[in-house]
Amino acid sequence: MSWKKSERLMDTIKHYSGFPATGVSLRQMVQFGERPSTGTLFRASQFLSEELPIRLAHRVQELGDLPDGLNDIPSIQKVQDWYSQSFEDITTLPRPNLPSDVRERLLRPMKQNGRDSKILSQTTHNPSVKQGQYRSQQTNGNSNGGGKGSSRRYYASTDDEGDWPPELNDYNKRFSRTLEGIKRRHDSVVTTVAQGILEYKRKRQRMQIDNNIQSFLDRFYMSRIGIRMLIGQHIALTDQKQAIEPNYVGIICTKTNVRELAQEAIDNARFVCEDHYGLFDAPKVQLVCKADLHFMYVPGHLSHMLFETLKNSLRAVVETHGQDKQEFPVTKVIIAEGKEDITIKVSDEGGGIPRSSIPLVWTYMYTTVETTPNLDPDFNKSDFKAPMAGFGYGLPISRLYARYFGGDLKLISMEGYGTDVYLHLNRLSSSSEPLQ
Ligand SMILES: Nc1ncnc2c1ncn2[C@@H]1O[C@H](COP(=O)(O)OP(=O)(O)OP(=O)(O)O)[C@@H](O)[C@H]1O
Ligand SMILES: [Mg+2]
């Protein structure tokens, strides 16, 4: 059955797109603790059932307003329909009819139990993000509990003595299942948009995308990271499967072991490199990192960024020195721990990048690979084999992941020698999502 958007739906979407997104910080996301209560989850569902439609609505509007006929490209319209459909899924999900005492109880703050305040005391403002740098609103404070007019609050711990009516739990489950469906629907958004841009470039005979489209893609993919973070977090919190794994709050690990993740990314990147070039032994990578270095982060995000930068380095090393070399120069991964940041430097001797090309490496679709691998819509299926390179998405998307939690990704090259990539990860974790 194919889905059709109604005029009424588009009007509602337009209305929602008039509200600003509300940014959430990593530290607000971990306030839920390892086992959030039914009431707390319900409050979070309520927040998300308004916040996600606002964010989806912004994207629907923006896709529709793309200039120069880009909004008419079929792949782009397909993605726009996915966003509209997901908007509809959330806004039409029936809410439980709760008796007034339950509604009041939901707004009543829980007695302090000390756990949240411990996590909070370890965090302060991120000085690298300027006040007012992003347009998203901050959620108001992070004190516990309700207060008047506070339904627009992501985390609110609720009074949890005694049972909640079963409707709450039912709603939480239904809401979480709806989110699962949405997450799956949007799995291939990145490749479908990329496909759309390719079609557009072909149709308009453009070599590079202009600044407008570049900043649209930055906003669009950043927004996607945020939406998927909130959705992934909420599903994991509702399942409470993570309670088996200590140190996890949803998909956030409060003690992400940096060294272990880096070693894993190195092994994976070397494996892909051996496979791609038919090498017996990929170029070596040396890891310098304290064994017990850990901080609060989303392991999946960190793995992604490390894997992408390492693939780039290994490719540069192999292609600069020739595939049939026996020995390659060693790539170094150095990890430092500061008060503000954990910084990871990936240093290779892969010949560097000419200075004039540096701005290009941050543009989507910029790649020095001759033939881009096929953009298969099944790209995200689990049996998908990661390519060595070829989409020109590795660096720009990794930088968005870094910035999403208040970090950054920088690249410095010495043409004729090699490249240093600096991955700064903010460990204070209080900066709100950088949404525009
Ligand atoms: N360490 C490096 N040394 C030399 N050139 C690099 C390095 N990292 C990136 N580049 C250059 O920047 C380009 C863009 O990198 P990016 O990772 O964004 O895309 P890609 O590797 O071409 O494709 P993919 O999307 O699969 O990662 C590369 O094609 C390469 O020319
Ligand atoms: Mg790459």
UniProtKB/TrEMBL annotation:
<dbReference type="Pfam" id="PF10436">
    <property type="entry name" value="BCDHK_Adom3"/>
</dbReference>
<feature type="region of interest" description="Disordered">
    <location>
        <begin position="109"/>
        <end position="167"/>
    </location>
</feature>
<dbReference type="GO" id="GO:0010906">
    <property type="term" value="P:regulation of glucose metabolic process"/>
</dbReference>
<dbReference type="Pfam" id="PF02518">
    <property type="entry name" value="HATPase_c"/>
</dbReference>
<keyword id="KW-0547">Nucleotide-binding</keyword>
<keyword id="KW-0496">Mitochondrion</keyword>
<dbReference type="InterPro" id="IPR036784">
    <property type="entry name" value="AK/P_DHK_N_sf"/>
</dbReference>
<dbReference type="InterPro" id="IPR036890">
    <property type="entry name" value="HATPase_C_sf"/>
</dbReference>
<protein>
    <recommendedName>
        <fullName>Protein-serine/threonine kinase</fullName>
        <ecNumber>2.7.11.-</ecNumber>
    </recommendedName>
</protein>
<dbReference type="GO" id="GO:0004740">
    <property type="term" value="F:pyruvate dehydrogenase (acetyl-transferring) kinase activity"/>
</dbReference>
<comment type="similarity">
    <text>Belongs to the PDK/BCKDK protein kinase family.</text>
</comment>
<feature type="compositionally biased region" description="Polar residues">
    <location>
        <begin position="119"/>
        <end position="139"/>
    </location>
</feature>
<dbReference type="InterPro" id="IPR004358">
    <property type="entry name" value="Sig_transdc_His_kin-like_C"/>
</dbReference>
<feature type="domain" description="Histidine kinase">
    <location>
        <begin position="302"/>
        <end position="429"/>
    </location>
</feature>
<dbReference type="InterPro" id="IPR039028">
    <property type="entry name" value="BCKD/PDK"/>
</dbReference>
<dbReference type="InterPro" id="IPR018955">
    <property type="entry name" value="BCDHK/PDK_N"/>
</dbReference>
<keyword id="KW-0067">ATP-binding</keyword>
<dbReference type="InterPro" id="IPR005467">
    <property type="entry name" value="His_kinase_dom"/>
</dbReference>
<feature type="compositionally biased region" description="Basic and acidic residues">
    <location>
        <begin position="109"/>
        <end position="118"/>
    </location>
</feature>
<dbReference type="GO" id="GO:0005524">
    <property type="term" value="F:ATP binding"/>
</dbReference>
<dbReference type="GO" id="GO:0005759">
    <property type="term" value="C:mitochondrial matrix"/>
</dbReference>
<keyword id="KW-0418">Kinase</keyword>
<keyword id="KW-0808">Transferase</keyword>
<dbReference type="InterPro" id="IPR003594">
    <property type="entry name" value="HATPase_dom"/>
</dbReference>
